[in-house]
Amino acid sequence: MRAGRPKAFEQSEVLEKAMHFFWERGYCKPGIAELVGHLGIGRQSLYDTFGSKRDLFIKCIYHYRATQLSTVIRILKEASDPLGRLKEAVRFFEALALDKSARGCLVANAIVEFGTDDPEICALLDETLALLEGGYLDALRRAKRLGQLPPTKKPAHIAKALTNASIGMAVTGRLSKDAAEIRAACAGTLAMLG
Amino acid sequence: MRAGRPKAFEQSEVLEKAMHFFWERGYCKPGIAELVGHLGIGRQSLYDTFGSKRDLFIKCIYHYRATQLSTVIRILKEASDPLGRLKEAVRFFEALALDKSARGCLVANAIVEFGTDDPEICALLDETLALLEGGYLDALRRAKRLGQLPPTKKPAHIAKALTNASIGMAVTGRLSKDAAEIRAACAGTLAMLG
DNA sequence: ACGATTCTGGATCATTCGTTCCAAAATGAG
DNA sequence: CTCATTTTGGAACGAATGATCCAGAATCGT
Q: Are A169 and B164 in contact (CB under 8 A)?
């Protein structure tokens, strides 16, 4: 097997950079030139490796799921102290909103930006959101079984409401608000659990 | 005072159409041609009357505030039964999310789309959100005074959390989800009040 | 050295962007 | 009618869009 010049970059590293780029700058606004400038590879290498801008973006959503969202879900699936895990997860989104870069959440941003006119991406985003909701639901059910949750609360409802509030915090995080305001919103949200 | 051909359109009617257009299609994606096609006036009339695309969008935010957001705030400021008003307001955003057109909320959409790179629009959106939060806070304080709210709940926190959840519902509404799912999320959110 | 593979960036593509210029048509008041 | 004003849309602007082609340099295995 003859072989030529080796790849000068790690595909996964570039994907990581691309994810952070779209996360912060959005999909529609920045052009290819700006994107390439942030990736550290040539324009043609980009098209050869990842296909179109849209293809790359879809790969970034999967990467976001695997590297960012998965950490919240891992927290929620831990066996001990499910109520504590729930608070921890909400605090994760609080941290998102507190972040100075005001990136929000890649998935939430994409939901808004793509609207309904790209069914494939839309379905992918919906599916991604369902993963988070599933994590919440799992922890809520265990919390209820342990008596950590008032018996009147319905896990299915709260799971959806927490997912919803998480998205809200991600969007709120795009405005650069006082840390105190964000913490207050988070504290209010946790009132759902008591 | 000599005068010529009269204006063939009502400025406020065109503004209304423009608002609905940006609401549904976003700001960045659609071009001027598509916009003009929906307004029913000529391209040059658009620039003469409203200035640039960005100028028009800012006017649309004000219009949205005056025609859409104001109805929620009016509900929240009604004197009687503040807890009922709060539920009514949350149900307003539930209706937003249930809407088949999947428009979400113009303000929430704009927050995501503009990120941090347009300080003027950003400040306007922040200010607009504060109006909603103020409405929630007002009703919450009155509810607490009337004993409709558990004394442990802090109106300032809940007001921010409800604002946050409202944004979340607006974003969730951009995905076309089952009505049942949206109603469940809404029901869970209302658990904050009990 | 040779062939194979990859990287890079300039040139180029058609398209679209927001915007401006302009000229013709329309319609009012004096 | 005349003049002022407004509407309309074609033409054009420079800039930017996403994407492709291509040539040259780089770097591997043989």
A: yes
